[in-house]
Structures are given as structure tokens and as C-alpha cells.
Amino acid sequence: MSLLTVFLVLFTCSPLQQQPTDIPTPAPDTTMLYTKRRIVLPEVPQRGRILDRHDSVLVATRPQYLLKLPRRPPLDTLALGQLLGWGPTTIRKRIADALPYEEAPAGYPVQLRLTAAEATRVRRKSREWPSLTLTESRQRSYTTSVGAHVLGYSSAEADAFYNQAKRYRRGRFYQLRNGGVEGYYNGLLNGRRGVLHPLVDEQGQTQGSWAPDTTFQQGQDLYLTLDVKLQAYAEQLLGRRRGYLVALDPRTGEILAYVSAPVYKPATITAPDQAAVRAKLLQQEGMPLINRPAMRANPPGSVFKLVNAAVALQLGSITPTTGFRCDQSLISCVHRHPAPSNLTAGLKYSCNPYFYQVMGKVINYVPDSLVQDTVAARHANLAEWRRYVRSFGLDSVLGVDIPREAPGFLPTPEYYDKARGTTRWRYRSIYSLSIGQGEINLTGLQMANMVAIIANRGWYYPPHLVRSIGDSGPLPRFTEKRYTLIDSVHFAALLPGMLAVMQKGGTADASSLEDVGIRVAGKTGTVENDEGNDHAAFVGFAPAENPTIAIAVYIENGGFGADAAAPCAALAMEKYLRGSIAAKRKRWEARIQSRARHGY
Fold first, then answer.
1. Of 455, 566, 572, 585, nearest to 515 (Cα)?
2. Mean of the per-residue pLDDT values for the chain?
3. In 459-504, alpha helices (H)
4. Beta strand spans in 167-205 (E)
């Protein structure tokens, strides 16, 4: 026998029908020839379910019934609608939604999803409708119409979506492969088939193993942190607007609501009869398929004054009693208010000149050792400011369990050296940092986590969407408490100002919930936008004394944070903490939901 023949015999795989054995075998005789076999056991794991924090099933693998319509017209759609129990409008819309484009020719292949009851009707009338084809298969089924960006989709079932996406702006296509928790936890959801690796001699007898065997693993269920009722309510508040709402429990880092708007139904991406709906999503200027809270980083605006104040307190640049004039020769201030005589007043009125001077104290500080080199002092001070700010989890990914999380951005001294074309830049050329504008960019997840840190007086658990994988709890990294570089006493100094924001004369006094016994600590932000209306932002937590919900809202082109973002946050907090909205805010709620439906 030639050497080549021996080599081929050694590495030939046997048919899968080979029966495995559990009988211990002695070590193989090295003088004999053996065959390496790989036996995949017949049992196939079932993909795990996805449930919300109250154990309501949101996604599961279930039978799917597809009705294939005849390709040759004419088709009596009225009679077909009667067969399925659909009205004339419904049958026309369902067929239109299944076509990939409006001008699709008559007879274009169309498949419609049916319920089990509708499939039974078709089977009973199969002789009268011989041109219809009904098939049954097991596919991922969504039992909810909310949480599309959280739930995501199985990549194996999204091929039609990817193929459609390739025909549109190609840059978007690459960002669409995120898949939510379906994609992030795909391996755990899928489970694992059992595989044996016997080493077989020339007589067909097993003589040990050539590799470790793989044990069978059933697909694991995912128990989300999401409160599906709060999620549905929050989606009603944002609707077709562009922006996000992220709410989490600051005590655990569990994400309670995660809205990326404009919103759409999660089944849209993989459903075979939603091609037209997908096409519209891909073409919309609002780009609803982009996962905004994780993938989009924007200037935070005045909500960032909280971070700058904490850093300035830590560095000793100010104290809680420090006051500054509202000097509008330094920077404009859109609010008319009394002179901010302390930090609480500065936050209450969101005074831009006040925080201009706070940041100036940080950047322009010159120690005795650098009195002859103010350039080096400014560089060192900006680097030190950035070090403290980064401890909030900014300018880096938080490690949230969702794909394609963006890190955001905080400028370095070297960045300004290059951008300004000189190392001799001064505070006046970077002062926009003082009000959360310019080069600062944060994601929605970072904004929510930032305010959770303040609620906790300086620590946080990384935000996450899955509270338990089967019965084993979350991923280990989500149980590791992390600390900022700011002392807790300085976070406590922010609280009076955040409470004042929600009280009479504060920038968000209209969004107070004190009438129902809930004290909210918050901060509004209005982000300047050269390309249209300003963006509206708000961060806050409640109850202020023992926070159980922290929230960040950002509405693109929404205008003032107090008018657009703060009301959404207040309603979401009230809904979560009380379960209902007080009568005095019902009209307010209806107006916000109406705007959300119309996208303005």
C-alpha cells in the first residue's frame, strides 16, 4: 500500500448513520490503520425563546403557514379575501405589502402569511382553489409589535432583507447587520448538536476517540431586562419622530425601555410578505433601520453640564456655592433668569455663561510649576478633564449586549493641536465643550448611563438587555460594579440643582410629577443644529431619593429640550412608576402621541 493510500484511509469520514458506542475501549494499536469518523447525533436543538422581564414570550420558533398565490392572472382577490376572512381593503393591502416594488408585474410571485385558522380554511377548500399552494415550516415568530431594534433578527432568515438593502444606499447596508439580541446571542439561542469522534479500526470496531466529543446543548431562552408595556408606551411617545428614548434601572444597569425612532414592527425584516414595507424603510430619509441609541453619537448639549460640574468640583475649580455673572459677552444665554449665585441656580436656569466660566476655571488653571508655560498647562488640564470624563464610560464602548455599539468621542489636546493648526490654542477656541457641544459626541446608551451614574453617586453596572440566559443569570461582565473618578459627595452636590430644574422657574418645571408624589431630578438640553431645528434632549431619574428609573430622551429637530424631550421622559417615568397617567396630563399625553404619529 502506498503512502498516499495510507494517508487517505486515515482521514476518511464515515457516513452519519454509524452508531455511537459508550463502551470504554483500550488505547489503539499503533501498528494498525485507523479511520477518523465524525458522527453528528440526530437530535436537533430547538432555538431558544426571547421573553421580557415579566416572562411574556416575545419571540419563539413556531409553525408558519405560507400561501403562495398563482402566478398567472387573473386572481379573484375578493373571493380569496372571503376565503381567508379578510375584507377587500385588507387583501389588497396584504398583497401590495408582499410585492418588492409598486410596479411589480401582474403574476409576480407572492406569498402571504396565514394564521393556523386561516390555513385550516384553505385546506378545507383546496379542491375549489387548486391554484393555491399552502406550505408549513418552523420560523421565528414575533408575538409583539414593539422592540424591533432590541429583538433584532436571525441572520439566517434575513437574506431577502439583505438582498433588498444592497439595491439602496450601500453604506446603510453594512450598518444593518446588527441583528439585536437575536444576533448577539445567536450561538446560545441556537444551541449545539452532539458530535462523536470515534477512531475505527479495519474491522469497524471503535478504538477510542481522535478528538473530544461535543455534548448536545438545547437552545437557551433569553430573559430580557425589557418591560414590554413600558416599551410599547415609549414607542407611542416617539413614533415617527427621529430620536431615541433609553430607560434603565440605575441599581442594576438593566435596560427597561430601548426606543430607536422612527419605530417599525420587528417582523418586518424577516417576514416573506413584507417586501414593500422593507423597501419603504430602506428609502425613508429618517433612516428607521439605524439603531440610534447604540450606533449614533450626537452632541449632548446642556445635559453635559452635569458632568462638567462634577469634574470641576472634583478638581477644586469650583464649590457648590460658587457663583458667576450671566455674562452674555462670553456666550449667549437663551433663558431670562436671575444671576446664578451658586451651582444649584446655574443648573436650574441652565445658564450658559455660568458653565462657560466653570469650564474656564478647569482649563485655564496654571499651577506654580507651569507659570511660565500656559500652553503646557492648558494641554495638561484638558487631558486631566478628559481622564475624569472618560471614567463615566464615555469615548469608549460600554459593552452593551447589542452589536455595533459606537464609542462616541471626547477631544484630546492632540486633536485640537491638529484641528487648530497650532499648539497655542486657547480656551476661547474650545469653550463649546462647556455646554456639551462642538466636538463632544455621546450615544443614547452613554447618555442614559451617565445619568444613572449621577443617580448612584458615582458607580454603575454596564447597561444590558438580557437579565438571564436560561437560569444562569446575565453575562458575568454585567455584574461587575464600576466606579468613576469622582467622589460621591460631588454627585450629591448636583442633586439640588437637578431637583430645581423640575420646580417652579426651572427649565423643565412643566414636566414636574410632584402632583402625584414623584420627585424627578433632571436636566434639559437644547443642541444647536446648523442644518435645521435644534435637537431636544433630557436626562433624569426618579424617585430622586431612591432612583429606580433613569432615562435619556433625544429628539432630532425637536427644538427646546424642555418642550419636546422632557415631557416624553416625564410621561415614561410616570407610566413605569404608577402604571397610569394622571388625568391632568391626559391632554398633554394625547398631543405628544399625535405628534409622534405624524412625525413632528
1. 585
2. 91
3. 488-492, 495-501
4. 195-196, 198-200
Greatest extent of the chain over all pairs of C-alpha atoms, in Å: 99
- Residue range 228-250: average pLDDT? 98
Q: DSSP secondary structure string, 42-94?
A: S--PPPPPEE-TT--EEEEEEEEEEEEPPSSSP--HHHHHHHHT--HHHHHHH
pLDDT single digits (tens) 34-90:
888 898 878 888 999 999 999 999 999 999 999 999 876 678 889 999 999 999 999
Per the CB < 8 A criterion, the answer to whether 83 and 122 are in contact is yes
- CA–CA separation, 160 and 171 (whole Å): 18
- Around 214, how many Cα atoms within 13 Å sit in the side-chain half-sphere? 13
* Cβ(524)–Cβ(538) below 8 Å: yes
What sign has the CA pseudo-torsion 226, 229, 233, 239? positive
C-alpha to C-alpha distance for 424 and 277, rounded to whole angstroms: 54
Q: Which three cell numbers stand for residue 223?
A: 430573559
- CA dist., res. 274 & res. 95, Å (int): 9
99: nearest Cα among 277, 288, 271: 277
Give start and end residues of each alpha helix (H) in 299-412: 305-315, 343-349, 352-363, 374-390
Rounded Cα distance, 235 and 56, in Å:
18
Give the domain ranges of the chain: 63-125+133-141
Q: Indicate whether 575 pLDDT > 80.
A: yes
Q: Tell me, what DSSP letter sits at residue 350?
A: T
Residue 250 confidence class, pLDDT cut points 50, 70, 90 = very high
Instruction: Tell me how far apart the alpha carbons of residues 21 and 531 are, in angstroms, rounded to a whole number.
Output: 70
- Give the global pTM: 0.90
What b/e string do you get for 474-495 counting C-beta neighbours within 10 Å, with b at 16 or more?
A: bbeebeeebebebeeebbebbb
Q: Give SS3 for 491.
A: helix
Q: What are phi and psi of 11, to 5 degrees?
A: -115, 20
Give bridge partners of residue 539 from the DSSP assignment: 523, 552
Q: Would you say residue 28 has pLDDT above 60?
A: no
- What is the rounded distance in angstroms from the CA atom of residue 350 to the CA atom of residue 498? 10
The 3-state DSSP class for residue 335 equals coil
- 222-224/50-51 β-pairing: parallel
In whole angstroms, what is the distance from residue 444 CA to residue 135 CA? 43
Collapsing DSSP states into helix, strand and coil, what is residue 208? strand
The answer to whether 442 and 448 are in contact (CB under 8 A) is no
Cell numbers linked to 371: 507659570
Residues 6+ positions from 475 with CB-CB distance below 8 Å: 401, 464, 466, 469
Helix or strand or coil: residue 190? helix
The grid coordinates listed for 226 are 425589557
| 130 contacts: CB under 8 Å, gap ≥ 6 | none
